[in-house]
Amino acid sequence: MSYHRKPSSTPGRLLRRGLCGSVLALMMGAYAQAADLTVAYFPGWPTTHQVGEEKGWFNEAVGMDVQFREFDTGAAMAAAMLSGDVQVAYSMGVIPFVIAVTQGAPLDLVGVAVTYSENDNCVVRNGSGIASPLDLKGKTVGVPFGTVSHYKMLKTFENVGVDVGTMKVVDMAPPDVAAAMTRGDVDLGCGWEPALSSMLKNGELLVSAKEQESWGLKVFDVIVVNRDFAKQNPEKISAFLSTVDRSTDFYQANAAEATAIISKKAGISEEQTRSIMAKFGFPKREEQLSQAWLGKDVPAFLKGVADVMVANGEMDKALDDYSPYVKAGYYTDTTAP
After folding, report:
1. Region of residue 44 (phi > 0: left; psi between -120 and 50: alpha; otherwise: beta)
2. Bridge partners, 3 (sequence order)
3. How many helices (H) and strands (E) does the chain have?
4. Side-chain half-sphere of 47: how many Cα atoms within 13 Å?
5. Distance between CA 274 and CA 256 in Å, rounded?
6. CA–CA separation, 284 vs 268, rounded Å?
7. CB atoms within 10 A of CB 253
8. Nearest to 83, CA basis, from 134, 38, 48
């Protein structure tokens, strides 16, 4: 397999090289003294929490000044949490979370932010000569390494019987993938919305999301907290999760008003917001606590992702069990561990 990474010294890349114990110790102390709550999220990513942000519900419920800060990738979110700049990551990707905790980061998964199987996929460029997955041999693929898009791509190739080693795979952020497809620099592009819509203007899906889901390929982002901060402030984490649910309830009951708010916060049109969110799922407390999510499937999924990342050289090792990093208790008890 020909893998090509863009040169980078960003925190997201450095995160994969190992974590310094002294930095972690300093970070944990910083979180314990936090006077406000900074939450990481993706720009251009329309989610229901933006209703609560706009209406001031998070400040009211948490009892702190809750500030939302944009990050382009989940790896950058994790790095910011390790530096002490961020206490909660809303909608962090599964793979950046797995990489971080495998390296020893004191982070915990406390909820599922959004599910989006249809909003994360791989697109075949028109004119690429790819009529079926078997035509991918020798082609160039653009995908953001160390993300769910990357994992989903690898598992899709595995399920359709294509050897990723026969392709040139290039590390690119989704907007760069979309631009490369327009130029004809890549034959297959993988990523998430809103870049996915741009890719589809120049191509079509390699495999449908429905077929991928039949293989067990759920796609979702998670709500992550620093363990030390959460242990010392369990009621604030519980209040944060409850406010996310309150925002989802408002969106479901007042779609027009909520869409206007969300599109403004996300910086995209209302039409695009409706289109993207129609393919999103926002599980609330009851669903989160079911076996299909935090009760069973999420810990198992984390382990599956980790094993695939090791097999494909993205991590040196995987943990035997990721369930200790999944803490459903913050949904049920303000004294959660």
Report:
1. left
2. 169
3. 16, 11
4. 30
5. 9
6. 25
7. 9
8. 38
Q: Determine the Cα–Cα distance for residues 136 and 244; give it in Å rounded to an integer.
A: 41
Nearest to 93 by CA among 84, 107, 122: 107
Say if CB 24 and CB 106 are below 8 A apart: yes
**pLDDT tens digits along 190-222:** 998 889 999 999 999 999 988 988 887 888 999
The SS3 call for residue 280 is: coil
Query: In order of start, what are the domains of the chain with their CATH numbers?
Result: 8-116+219-331 (3.40.190.10), 118-214 (3.40.190.10)
CA distance 12 to 194: 21
Q: Which two tokens stand for residue 4?
A: 């090509």
Length of the chain: 337
331 phi/psi in degrees, rounded to 5? -80, -20
Dump pLDDT digits (tens) for 89-120. 999 989 899 999 999 999 999 999 999 888 89
